[in-house]
Amino acid sequence: MSAGRFAPSPSGDLHVGNLRTALLAWLFARSTGRVLLLRVEDLDRVQPGSEQRQLDDLRALGLDWDGPVVRQSERRDLYDEAVRSLTAAGRTFECFCTRREILEAPSAPHLPPGAYPGTCRDLSDAERARRAAERPPAVRLRADVQEWTVHDVLVGSFTGVVDDVVLRRNDGVPAYNLAVVVDDAAQGVDQVVRGDDLLTSAPRQAHLASLLGAAQPEYAHVPLALNAEGRRLAKRDGAVTYRELTEQGVDVLEIIGTSLGLTGSPQDMLAAFDPAALPRDAWTFVPPAT
Ligand code: GLU
User: Where are the domains of the chain?
Assistant: First the structure.
């Protein structure tokens, strides 16, 4: 089975930028004969009621998906199993660093900027025991490459940093990068369509997929929506959600479609959809005054 997916985090209502990404995920999947899966990434930052509102808004926009909605919170065993198998293969280590310690660590000259400096990679047993008495560890990947190349339909070949990414946070919650890779592999997702803020995460994720024996997905990182100041669109920018805009008399499907050079119903847009013709620049959205 060949599949695409839309994977929102239920941390609040989707704004037009997120809805535009959802429409693109739908168009990419439907135009390539893939099923479209809906995965709720609810390991973190959940706002009660948000999942239902997001699904309602997607349906109101005229989008559909295949099979039941999958929730990451119901799949913890799968993520734990992946950490276990990587650990059994000697590919993990416990990390006791606080965020601050990582920021303040001298950057290692042989590592790319922003990479985990390797502080806890090779602790002695005694040092590990001392640190473990202070705080519970996170589990990190013991990466043995520094970069990885992915293929993106819109961006082309993209090479980015791979470091000792967190697999399980020190509060025991599976990390986003692990969950996304385990799920995409388990669900047969072979095309990942999402916002281009995640482009730099793709090499880490694709590398992790290779370690877990999964195929490399193809990516399509789509440009984000920006506000009038050129910053990433946010809720505080005004009327930006499906409901807010509809109340203002705005036809949300129409403005999103127009931004992509498409018109009519999702089916009409599908008939005219050509990834090569998509705009490659960010979309500026100026919300109507409320
Ligand atoms: N849940 C992530 C988000 O809403 C998307 C993750 C992904 O598409 O890989 O930003």
Answer: 3-71+231-284, 77-146+162-176
Of ligand 1's listed atoms, the one at least distance from the Cα of 41 is 1
DSSP string, 102-120: HHHSPPPTTS-TTS---TT
How high is the pLDDT of residue 18?
Answer: 97
Distance 192 CA to ligand 1 centre (A): 10
Cβ(195)–Cβ(170) below 8 Å: no
Atom of ligand 1 nearest to the CA of 194: 8
Q: Is 235 designated active site?
A: yes
Whole-number Å distance, alpha carbon 99 to ligand 1 midpoint, is 22
Q: Which regions of the chain are under pLDDT 70? A: 290
Q: List the one residue out of 95, 104, 235 whose CA is nearest residue 175.
A: 95
* Residue whose CA is at the smallest distance from ligand 1 atom 7: 7
For the CA of 184, the closest atom of ligand 1 is: 9
Give the per-residue pLDDT at 290: 66
Instruction: Give the separation between CA 90 and CA 81, rounded to whole angstroms.
Output: 14
Binding site membership of 8 for ligand 1 (Cβ less than 6 Å):
yes
Q: Name the fold adopted by 77-146+162-176.
A: Glutamyl-tRNA Synthetase; domain 3 (3.90.800)
Taking only the tens place, the pLDDT of each residue in 91-114 is 999 999 998 888 888 777 777 777
Could you name the CATH architecture of 3-71+231-284? Answer: 3-Layer(aba) Sandwich (3.40)
